[in-house]
Each structure stands twice: as C-alpha cells, then as structure tokens.
Write a structure and sequence with these properties.
Largest sheet: 5 strands, mixed
CATH superfamily of the largest domain: Beta-grasp domain
Strand order of the largest sheet: 2-1-5-3-4
CATH topology of the largest domain: Ubiquitin-like (UB roll)
CATH class of the largest domain: Alpha Beta
Number of domains: 2
Distance between the termini: 47 Å
Structural class: alpha+beta
Oligomer: single chain
C-alpha cells in the first residue's frame, strides 16, 4: 500500500505493508539509520523519532497508520537545528557518548525536554530520559550533558 506523509520537512510517498513498522520504513525505504531497533518492544528508546512533534517509539508504530497530515522528524532531520547542535556539542563536551547506540534517542528526548522546559531540574531531566536506556554511561554524563545544553541556552 502507498502512504504519504511528511518526513524531515518534505512530503514523501512510500510503499509499505500492513506489518511494516515505521522504524523499518525509515531504515529500509529512506536509509535513515540513526533510529535503531534495540528491543523491538518500545522499552529502550533507541528507535525514538518525533511524530507531529512528540517523541514516539518507531518500532511500535505501524507505517501503514501514517497519513498525509502526519509529520515524522528523525535526528537526521535536525542537522541544522540550533538546539540540536547545542545538545550534540554538550554530549561531546561531557563525554556522554560511548558506543553511540542510544544517542539519537537520547538527543531527541533532550530536544523535546528543552523545547518545552529550557531550565529543567535534575528530576525533570531524569523523567525526560526515563524511556531511553543506555548500557554504557550510567546516565551521570548524559544528565550532565542535558544540564550543560540547558545552561548554554541562557
């Protein structure tokens, strides 16, 4: 079946099946590989993308349910975004990137948080990142990176 939606600011058409997830569609049809399948159950956050401005687990969203009014934004679609540039720099400055597998989801969760709450508390940061699992850092450096990105926004 053919679907039409907006992807990273551009109207696109794609062929999908009833069973294909949005994650599979993004990776296979559009070669956007930042979002990854970590668990396939919506628990790890590695597949996070924005649907109409809100973070979702793309491994759980069936591509066939997208419609012409839907807008998907991936981390690749935020290359020129000033907030995302600040977030990426903060993650680098704080040494919050190790294997990198979780980072696209972490940075999208951070982007969503700072877009809504530019001065988050540590509790706000922990809550915003709760749906994203990192197996390498222990979260302290990631939390510091989010705080750093918020502080640089002043």
């Amino acid at each position: 079946m053919k679907i039409i939606f907006t992807l990273n600011g551009k109207k696109v058409e794609a062929e999908t099946t009833a069973q294909m997830t949005l994650l599979e569609l993004l990776r296979q049809n559009f070669k956007l590989t930042a979002a990854k399948e970590g668990c396939g159950k919506g628990e790890c956050g590695a597949c996070t993308v924005f649907l109409n401005g809100s973070p979702i687990n793309s491994c759980l969203k069936l591509a066939a349910t997208l419609n012409e009014n839907d807008s998907i934004t991936t981390v690749e679609g935020l290359e020129e975004d000033k907030l995302m540039q600040r977030i990426r720099q903060s993650f680098t400055d704080e040494g919050a990137v190790q294997c990198g597998f979780c980072i696209p989801g972490m940075t999208l969760a951070t982007h969503h948080l700072l877009s809504k709450n530019p001065k988050p508390s540590l509790t706000d940061i922990k809550t915003a990142l709760a749906g994203n699992i990192c197996r390498c850092t222990g979260y302290r450096k990631i939390e510091a990176a989010v705080k750093n990105a918020a502080d640089k926004g002043e």
